[in-house]
Amino acid sequence: MSESRPSSATRFVVGVSGSPGSLTALSRAAEEARRRGAELWPGLAWEPPGGDPAARRFPAAAVMVEEWDRLARERLLQALCDVFGSTDTGVPGQALVVRGALGPALVRTAGREDDILVVGAGGRGRLHRALWPSVSRYCLARATCSVLAVPASPLQAALAAVHRRNALRLPLDTGRLQREFETVPPAA
Q1: Which range among 18-22, 49-53, 119-123 has the greatest average pLDDT?
Q2: Closest CA relative to residue 128, chosen from 162, 152, 97, 146
Q3: What would the mean pLDDT of 85-93 be, rounded to a whole number?
């Protein structure tokens, strides 16, 4: 990814975790940045296991900080490679790795009024919503710039359903899958 100096150009700040939803958001952000002549700022935020308060209580965690940061950088580079085929997005901007919770880190990074914050808004079950806070909801509620919440691909939901059926050893209804594929437009 090409480095850039702070400029007055619109920035598309996108949260990247390596999840299918974040990869969809990264792809959409790059597409929009190209179309509008803007910069692309993909960012990955990380925290020590148990968060910063737990890391402060255990001195051994300080030794691991460099390793966790290195792993976060590798995950961001892998996400860029997964979406673009290399680490070069073809769009000016800067890739960021930030220590901290993802929602607050994205809101801080996209602090300018003309920034556009892009987050994945994947489908989440009730249990998942109850146990883990939603980054997209956090950003929508607190960002001072425009927020683009990119829904998950319909294929992602279909693959998750197939995975659940396989995990539970339930038979796959191939007739239903065939009907679904027949309704998908050819360009999708």
Answers
A1: 18-22
A2: 152
A3: 92
